[in-house]
Amino acid sequence: ETVVVTVPKPRVAPARPASGPARGPRNGGTAMAAPAAGTGSGTADGAAQAQPVNPPPYAVQARRALRRPGAESVVSVTQQDPGTKSNLRQVLDEVPGVLIGQRGGENSLGSISIRGSDTSQAGPRGGRGVRAFADGVPLGRLVTGVTLPLLDLKSTDYIEVYRGASSLRYGALATGGALNLVSKTGRTAPGATISTAGGSNRFRESQIELGGAKDKYDFYFQVNDHFDGGYEFNSRNYAPRFSGNFGWQPTENIENRTYVAIGKNLQELPTSVPMSQLSRYRQSGYDPSNTSFPYDLRANYEYQRVVNKTVIRSDTTSVEIAPYFLLSAFDHLPSPSAGIQDVVWTDWGVSLRLENRNELIGRPTELVFGYRPTYEDASYKTYQWAKGTRGATKASLVYDDAFHAWFHEGYGEAAIEVMPRVKLFTGAQAFWTDRNYHDGYSGARIASGTEASPAGGFGIGPASSNGLRNYERDFSAFNPKFGVNWEYQPNHFVYANIARSTEVPNAGDISSLLTLQQTVNGLRAGTLNMIDNLAMQRAWTGEIGVRGGWDRFRYDVAVYDMRLNDEILSACALNFIPLSRFTVAQQAQLRGQFACSNANSLVAFNVDKTRRTGVEAGFKTRPVVDVLAAGDHVHLDVTYTFIDSRFVDDPTFGNAQMPLTPRHQAFAELGYRHPAGFFAAGNIRFVGERWTTFDNSGGDAFVAPASTLYGARVGWKAPDKSWSVWAEGRNLTDVAYVSDFAPLLRSADAPTTPGGTPFVYPGAGRAFFAGFSKTFN
């Protein structure tokens, strides 16, 4: 959100906060940190006449989150202890309600779920239920979903985490919530910094940063290079990235900042393995028929992003104007039967926001209005590939699809201080969007091909389109919100809210269902029609929470209940094909093209009613201080999440527990910190059992077992932040555990070889890492 803070003149690049008793042990000062006594609740920082900073500093956003009516956390990346920070899991460990699966090692593979939103990385979802933003503008797909390869934590100052739908600006179009990554600038990260790290599985990364500020100008640029050989066979990852921004304040009332980012993420795709043989195949992969290993399975992203944000202010009003552009490309080689995927997305739009602080009926009032139109067009092409090339050379074009959509989103909110330290919030978000998918293939009919196909012009991959894969539809919704925040004692808050959220089918949902219907109905006309019935997902969430703390103890606890209608889920396409209607040869073709082990085999479907009930709790404590020296301390941090996620009187699944989401999840860390900069800690991460079937059939053989992982880290960070060295160990007991999987409708749908077990993606084994950084001011 746009926040107003007082900045002394002249504006000098601030030093990064030093370690000390008031600092959070691992996540710096998260939103759980208590603000300084006497800050009150008036405007965002208690200043009526103030000067904005674009973007607002971390400390201001952390204080502001305490006074919001929903579960919001602000996590500093730069104030955390040094480490690899290669993915979100390493940064958001101590945020309750967030589940992040990690596959194959230090890479962008995996999934993110907030409050039980869809967690599987495979298929068309791409992190459904969580919206991603960078510096307040959309990052990635048009409406919802997190494209993890686009997130560059190395250039991030802090992350705003919105759990649930209470954030109208970011979260009302996602069941789980939203993330907003706020970039470093020349004022928050001055100087030149060199960082490097290395570790297990040939992991290595390095970064060079340069930032500074003078008078009305500031700049920050960074380049980083990441490589990981991967724990599992065929999980290598390479990701070079560049990003930066330039700030300019032409007058006292106008600020402008331009952001640029360029990068790529080249990711090999490991295979899923039988859960009953997880320990045996977790590193080597599983491919007894040699149908995957001969091919270069991979998922490659490239992106270019430009944003220009201007903030214009007066004494009581600020206006934000931010046009943005994102070009991203995806080269995917999922399996021999699916062909080479070649996708290019182009997104552009503008974010408009007005914020006014004044009085209404004699009470302090904040009014916020925003409008964000976005247009996306995309090209979806699929090719067969030439024999003998292992997928490296494209052959015949078989799919040539175009997608375009408009998305108009508006929101408004009023926050009224009805009495000292009590604020009432009311607001709404409304949107209209369309979905237009056009099959542009007009070439000759091309048959599907395999390595066993006759020579002479046959490629490997699916048959060509019939030119009839077309779809046009629009969606709209109005999502209200009501909330309250009460500072019942200084630095102690209680809040409550009720909010509506919606999600609409995305381009991946449409493409996968059209492909499934065309293939099935091409073999037997009229067999399948799913896409016309795919509906928008709707939910109401009620939430109550408390947060705040004292000097040595901080807490953040939330309880919520979410009721969903027409939830969009995903399952293997084979579950929806009546195979008994087809010949033996046709069944073999369908089982090959839509095999559940293929990354592109999942399709979307609705269920009538579902429900999530949860408890999210986080605690930060310093039980012992002045142990060996004045100012040192022992810290104990605990995060716990409980989610009861289930169907409600479903005709197919009854009241079964939903798959993928564990009922219990916890993270705890015990450590020591010395004022000279030395730190050491041990941690434990627990993820409970998870069903792999929607109907909870199959018994214990179809329950992903709970896992407990142990880690440790040690290091030193100079008090002036000029030097840091660190070492870390993860999964120290080398536990074989399940990281991610695509759920089955029922246990009977499990692959016949080997029988009686689901296929899952293993987590990484024991690993060690070390690194250092040096800053020159």
From TrEMBL:
GO BP annotation list: siderophore transmembrane transport
Location of the region described as Disordered in the Swiss-Prot/TrEMBL record: 1-53
InterPro entries, A to Z: Beta-barrel_TonB (IPR000531), Beta-barrel_TonB_sf (IPR036942), Plug_dom (IPR012910), Plug_dom_sf (IPR037066), TonB-dep_rcpt-like (IPR039426)
Compositional bias per record (Low complexity), positions renumbered to this chain: 1-50
Predominant subcellular localization, coarse grouping: membrane
A Pfam family that the UniProt record links to this protein: TonB_dep_Rec_b-barrel
Ranges for domain TonB-dependent receptor-like beta-barrel: 224-732
Record key words, sorted: Cell outer membrane, Membrane, Receptor, Signal, TonB box, Transmembrane, Transmembrane beta strand, Transport
Start and end residues of each TonB-dependent receptor plug domain: 70-178
Membrane topology term: Multi-pass membrane protein
PROSITE patterns in alphabetical order: TONB_DEPENDENT_REC_3
Gene Ontology molecular function terms on file: siderophore uptake transmembrane transporter activity
Name recorded for this polypeptide: Ligand-gated channel
Coiled coil stretches, renumbered: none
Cellular location(s): Cell outer membrane
Assigned GO CC terms: cell outer membrane
Sequence intervals crossing the membrane: none
UniProt similarity note: Belongs to the TonB-dependent receptor family.
